[in-house]
Amino acid sequence: MSIAHLHQLYVDHLLKHAFTGSPNNLYEPMKYIMELGGKRIRPILCMSGAEACGGKAEDAIDVAHAMEVFHNFSLVHDDIMDRADQRRGLPTVHIKWNEPTAILAGDNLLVKAYESILAFQGPGKDAILKLFSTTATQVCEGQQDDMDFADRNAVSEAEYLQMIQNKTAVLLGCSLASGALVANADAEIVQGLYDFAIAIGMSFQMMDDYLDAFGDSDKTGKVAGGDIKEGKKTWLYIKSCELDNQTPVWFSEPSLDHRVKAVKAHWIRMGLDQRILDKAKEYNQEGLRLLDVLSKKGVQTSGLVEILDFLAVRAH
User: What is the three-class DSSP state of 86?
Assistant: First the structure.
């Protein structure tokens, strides 16, 4: 199926399985975050993984749902830690309700993610659960590193790349590989698909960093220059420090709006707006190389190429 068809298949499933329960003020925030929209790339990857290995997208729907529920669990908690006011252009859960409710709603989303995997009855369930649990730990490790880096004077490029792999890419890898496991694919194929998703996940995060600094906030649904305002040690910040030792001074500007304007002007002057796009392209090229190898082993890669192309040109 095309991305559009897989997206609709998942949205239909989501609406049929909207979170409800008592107390309502626990389940309403869960329903709210799940229905805020988004690209749904994780469930799409999961269903695509099944199709690529000769399975059916419908057979992977419960596992695909688990990936999206876990992703939204992480968003609810991340927004609290980042003190974010908006998510996809609307109030974040802790702003619309309150922090204790948001924490509990996030916790319950994590439980529901596991329940969704348990609902799957195929032969790959044990392997999926093992991979999912490993991934959940890595995502938490990545988030902790992300917060720790904010308090450090220096972060290396290697440290940053490992952090974004854990925080972002491994869940994409888990999603695609889990879809392959639904289709009972060989271990070598599962690993190859996982590696491909890691590559596009790294490119995905590079594009996120680019869009945070240089994107249109009306399209991204986020506050413009949010990472700059928070002083996050992104790839752009790290490379900026390598090129100009005055970078920390620019980030000391007390007026956050002036800081964003000044930093962006310096980064454009240094060519970093283009260099980060080139870095994202490098990961995409690695993804294409891995797909070529998988194609020669009988994997149906056309849907995965469509996903790669979709992510490469996104504006939000």
Answer: strand
Rounded Cα–Cα distance for residues 237 and 244 (Å)? 10
Phi, psi of 25 (to 5 degrees): -75, 0
Neighbours of 237 (CB within 10 A): 25
Model confidence over 38-66: pLDDT tens digits? 889 999 999 999 999 999 999 999 999 99
Q: How far apart are CA 150 and CA 140, in angstroms?
A: 16
Is the pTM for the entire model greater than 0.90?
Answer: yes
Buried b (16+ CB within 10 A) or exposed e, 7-25: bebbeebbeebebeeeeee
End-to-end Cα distance, the chain: 23
Contact (Cβ atoms closer than 8 angstroms) between residue 203 and residue 284: yes
Token pair recorded at residue 197? 């998703």
- CA 223 to CA 241: how far, in whole Å? 24
> How far apart (Å, rounded) are the C-alpha atoms in residues 196 and 304?
9
CB-facing half-sphere around the CA of 251: CA atoms within 13 A: 23
